[in-house]
Structure formats: C-alpha cells, structure tokens
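Design a sequence for this backbone.
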C-alpha cells in the first residue's frame, strides 16, 4: 500500500486529479474499451472534480470513453433534490465534461425494488469488465461509502441503515435539521470497492486522523472499514499533514522516505504511474535533490 502525504487539501486535490487524468490517458480508452471509474460524493472530492473539469476544458483529458459508477445514494430523496448524490455529481463534474449520460451509473434510491436495484448495479459493473480505479473518501469513523462500522468486509451493494453519527454529520447539508436527513441509503459494499483493480482513498483533516492511524498502523477491522485497503494489491491513500497527527512519527518518516527514494534515487522517469520500478536510475550517487514531487510520478 502507498501512503502519499501532501501539505494540505489543495495539494491532495491536485495530486489526485493529476493522477486520475494520467491514468485515463495512459489507458487510452475507446468505445469498446472504456476506462471504468468509481466515484464518491461529499466534501472530499470537490477539489478533485474542480481540477478535472479544468483539465478537460484545457484539452488535457476527455471523458468521452469513461464509464462511472457512484458509491452511494440516499433512499427516498428525489433525484433532482439539491442534496441528492445524482445532483451533486452533475453539478460538480458531469455537466462540465464530455461524459455520455448513458455511461453514468448512479444508484436509484426511489425505485420500488431496492434489492433488485442493488443486484442490477453489481451486474452492470461486471458487464463492463469491472472497475479500473475506485476513488473514495472516508468519514471520521473510517467508513467508506456508507459501509458503517461493523459492516462486513465481504459486503456487496445493498440497502444500509445510516449510523446516527453519519446522519448528524450530514445534517449540515440539510439546514442542520436531522429530521430532513434520509435514514437509509443504497451503497456499494466493501468488497465491491476492493474488487476494483486499483483503489485510491483521500483522507484530509485532523478530524480523520484517528481513522487514518487505525487504517495504517493497526490490522484489518470491520469497525474501520477503510482498513480493508491493506489487503488490496494496488491500494493508495493520499492524505494531508493534518490527517497524519495520530500516526507515529516513524510511520510518517517511513512513507516520506519511500517517496524520497523514488524521486531522488530511482528517479520519477524510471517509475510507472502506479509506483512500480521500471529500471534503476543511472548516476544516482551524490544527488542533492531533496524536494518531493508535487504531481504523480510516471
């Protein structure tokens, strides 16, 4: 697992947006071979989506052959409600890029048969060959999507009752009125996320520092569902300095030293975008370059 530490939310957003852009470009998607991307909502990805829109407008990336699957949606909230995740995604990303509407998959929380909707969502993911890259954020209690503490790590897309803490946290989007917050949601399962060929989690802010520490320094635990990323062969967490406050100093130094070795001793030109070493850098002795990269390595 890779842990990439950046100074603040802005740097995290820049890194992740650039990484996604480069992954799409290197994949070279076409109509018969689309890039399949899993996406979150909430406050964590807003800066990333803003930068992806900027890249699209600058001609640096296209979403024409990108297929998306969103993590979750509230049950019973009208699709055009300003706080529905359908509205969120179109407002913050989809309406600003060239993605085809038929390539957007968002769970329908108003369908008469919620269980069938969840099964269809899983089948749709399988039909396109699985998810290439799943982007996610977490809550302060370490939940990914709406997989609250105690969720099965083998869980699939399903109906989920939201924890009181999650309802309380989401009340800020509903005029601070808990009674207006939906109590049920449709969500991908932990296993749905971990089935993706690559998983990238964003963790920012001191209020998520304990969750990051549990994920990085302790074992896999269904009470901190994000910890399942430890078992993924291509898992990456990108965090800011505030999120590292509960990590041991030696842990932070270790992950920063790995990135320093990649950049200064091996050389970014000798690394794949996903961090694999293609070849050793020649003439590495005597380097004085101690600056860490601000964009993904290629």
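Sequence:
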């Amino acid at each position: 697992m890779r842990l990439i530490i950046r100074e603040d939310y802005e740097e995290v957003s820049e890194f992740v947006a650039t990484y996604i852009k480069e992954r799409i470009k290197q994949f070279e998607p076409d109509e018969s071979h689309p890039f399949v991307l899993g996406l979150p909502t909430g406050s964590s990805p807003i800066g990333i989506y803003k930068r992806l829109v900027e890249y699209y407008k600058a001609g640096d990336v296209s979403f024409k052959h990108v297929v998306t699957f969103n993590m979750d949606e509230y049950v019973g909230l009208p699709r055009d409600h300003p706080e529905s995740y359908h509205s969120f995604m179109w407002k913050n990303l989809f309406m600003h890029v060239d993605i085809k509407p038929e390539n957007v998959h968002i769970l329908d929380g108003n369908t008469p048969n919620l269980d069938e909707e969840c099964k269809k969502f899983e089948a749709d993911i399988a039909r396109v060959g699985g998810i290439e890259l799943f982007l996610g954020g977490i809550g302060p209690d370490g939940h990914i999507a709406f997989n609250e503490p105690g969720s099965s790590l083998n869980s699939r897309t399903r109906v989920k009752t939201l924890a009181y803490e999650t309802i309380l946290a989401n009340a800020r989007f509903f005029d601070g009125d808990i009674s207006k917050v939906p109590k049920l949601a449709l969500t991908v399962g932990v296993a749905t996320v971990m089935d993706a060929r690559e998983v990238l989690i964003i963790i920012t802010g001191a209020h998520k520092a304990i969750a990051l520490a549990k994920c990085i320094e302790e074992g896999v635990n269904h009470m901190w569902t994000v910890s399942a990323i430890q078992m993924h062969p291509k898992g990456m967490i990108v965090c800011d300095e505030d999120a590292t406050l509960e990590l041991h100093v030696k842990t932070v130094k270790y992950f920063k030293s790995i990135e320093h070795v990649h950049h200064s001793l091996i050389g970014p030109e000798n690394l794949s975008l996903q961090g694999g070493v293609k070849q050793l850098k020649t003439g590495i002795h005597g380097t004085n370059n101690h600056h860490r990269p601000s964009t993904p390595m290629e």
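The CA atoms of residues 47 and 107 lie 23 Å apart.
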